[in-house]
Description:
392 residues, 4-stranded parallel beta sheet
Amino acid sequence: QTVxxxxxxxxxxxxxxxxxxxxxxxxxPKDWHAWIDENRVMRVxxxxxxxxxxxxxxxxxxxxxxxxxxxxVPINTFHCYGVPSLAGLDACLSNxxxxxxxxxxxxxxxxxxxxxxxxxxxDQRKYxxxxxxxxKDHPAIxxxxxxxxxxxxxxxxxxDQQRFFAQIDPTRPTCSTFDHPEYVRGFMKGFDILDIxxxxxxxxxxxxxxxxxxxxxxxALSVKPLWLTPQAFSWKWFRMGRSMPDARMPTRxxxxxxxxxxIVAGATGVNFYGPGHFLNEKNAxxxxxxxxxxxxxxxxxxxxxxxxVSPETPVRIDGVPSHLRTRAxxxxxxxxxxxxxxxxxxxKAKLKLSECFVKSNVExxxxxxxxxxxxxxxDFAPIGYGVLxxxx
Length: 392
């Protein structure tokens, strides 16, 4: 089916039109392994799943499992460059880690395609089949990574690739990572999951994460699931960062702020970019410190993730000033409240809840407390955040 959009001015003159095709299924196919539900939450074999992972080389996932385990970073996903071997997929599954293999940006005639010997559409189809078909039924795989920071010239190629993947593996969604909010609307036919990578530290204010999240979610008409790729690296580790005097690894507070700004804007998945570089020779002296930062933020996220994907009706938060952002969830008898200060200055406020609670526990961040009954007190540092679990 196709939805047609037509824009008119006040005098009735048509200014432009666009169409968005979609397929409405009478029921979900029983053989779907992973899919996105009505709340834009991933389901894996029926269970709600919040990806908490890292971008990583497909050839090194077995090594990565040990590295992140030894560093006490409890990820549950590898967002891969390339497609892991069957042995690598087996190792991930046995360690409770899911995989999103990458077959990204390889299009006939594109620069990336030419580098890989992909000159024609037949070459492209062959390239994909050779990598996907041998592993596509492996239970560790929950989706396919098809595009990384594409430009508008690839829009039709992306749509074609999306249709091809729907044929060769209709049981899993695809995801694409974007770095330009203004491009998203033109790519709607080319992806299932909207992944964004603002990377502000060294370039922009931290609240860029919130701004991009809200802008890109709107650009995708709020119908695509939003995933966040936070910056767990210093721009100085890369050529682009040599001209950035303020480039550095984010602090624990900055990395946490990025994550929770994305989540307050609706993110239902988080995959960090950068940890694969922690152990590079030039970064080895700071590896322990960097892993500690990542470990802290991942553990906060793991504590709250089951609530974030819960479909239960949440408590209502009233009296929220315009400079704060809030979200709430309910999981069983407990309620969870997230409050985020995206601004580079401290803030104090009192918020009211639609229900009363007798105790609370801090699950992430600091500066948020239950002051009694249905009142929350906010005392945030710049770019502060807090998550409370509230109990009756």
